[in-house]
From TrEMBL:
Organism (species): Amycolatopsis rubida
Keywords assigned by UniProt, alphabetized: ATP-binding, Kinase, Membrane, Nucleotide-binding, Transferase, Transmembrane, Transmembrane helix, Two-component regulatory system
Protein name in UniProt: ATP-binding protein
Domain Histidine kinase/HSP90-like ATPase: 352-441
Pfam families: HATPase_c
UniProt entry tagged with the keyword Transferase: yes
SUPFAM superfamilies named in the record: ATPase domain of HSP90 chaperone/DNA topoisomerase II/histidine kinase (SSF55874)
GO molecular function, one term: ATP binding
Classification via PANTHER family: NITRATE/NITRITE SENSOR PROTEIN NARX-RELATED (PTHR24421)
Transmembrane portions of the chain: 71-93, 99-119, 131-150, 170-194, 215-238
Amino acid sequence: MTRQQDGDRRGASFLVMLLRRGTPALATATTGLTDEIGDPTPVRALQRISRMAGPVDERQRDGLLLRAARYVVLVPLVYRLLVVPATFASYAVKHGSAGLASVAVVAVCSVALSAFGLFWMMRRAPFRSDLAGRLLVADLVATLAFELFMGATVSPAVFHDAVGVADKHLLGSVALVTLAVGIPSGIGLAALSLPVRLLSDLLNHGTFDFAQAASLYPTMFGVLFTAVGALILLGLGIRLALAYGIRNGRLAERARQHRMLHDTVLQTLEAIALGGPGDSDQRLVEVQRLARAQAIELRQTIETAAAQRAEEGARPLGEKLAALAAEMARDGLRAQLVIAELDNDTLSEVRQIAIRDAVREAMRNTMKHAETDKVVVRVEERNGGIAVITRDHGTGFSPQDRPAGFGISESITARLSEVGGTSLVESSPGSGTRVTLWVPL
């Protein structure tokens, strides 16, 4: 049963997942890329699209793509920022001061919500999906409240024009939800808007106006269609670009290997085949010399790749932490390294790895909980060992109210204890967090 479920998850269609979940599904675009997707051989359009829309592994998510995907929702936010004020201005010109205060309240609140959404999406702090979900719910509640507020506060004579301002915000919200959460949610909001609009009619003039309430649906369906088209084009375009990039990377690597073989092994074999002056013993010695030299060069070339893979383990502690800072920067956390002059030969590789992995966990905690995108990592010699201090100025927490979880107790404390080290976590609400790691030399 479990294996079957795992297989189903790995075989989920990228296109179906994209339409159901919205832009967050773009984070899986790097999985399931076959050679056929990037093959430049002309094929039918539907055949290539079916390949790009093929199965992906939803458990593997690319952090960079996940961060980039959120910027798609900026489009409906900008739409609301531009269209709602324009609709309000049109209403003011047409009706003057009649109902203007209520319409102005909705317009100002709409602009404030959209501007805050833009600011929140563009800020440098690490993206938190749970907080984004709460903000989206609050935006949707406000969207529906605008419709009811218009019905309850403006006169029937200007109601239809006044509610048009709220309708523009609603159209932007439909696009926002469709892109951020998926088509089912967008359709759900569109369906929910009808009874809300009817209730607004009832509050305003005591009757239901089905014709007027349904008049927005052609435009709303157009917005849904546009959002769906944008999702499909963006998702399939990213898949195709990734496939071409992988294919071109392989071709470049293959060309590099061909040049290396041509300039080394092939040249040596041709020199051996051509022979040279002298008796057979001299020629045998020359062949052995060429073969030995070429074997050494070829072995060095082959071992280069393995050395690069092992480079992370062979680096000094300072370089390990610098590589870790680059890794965290990819996920949105900027780390400032302050490293004293250290004698790296005195610290064993096992302890260096333990320090690096514990620092990674501390930085992950900063990303998840501190609501800041900056952290300072200082490395120094202290008390006959190496101390690494990770300091952020985020929200902090109370150790008494929040006991150590698995990340601190196992990924930090236990990891350091296994190599004879210690760890200390200091924090208080509003004052940030300091994690001090220490291992003996």
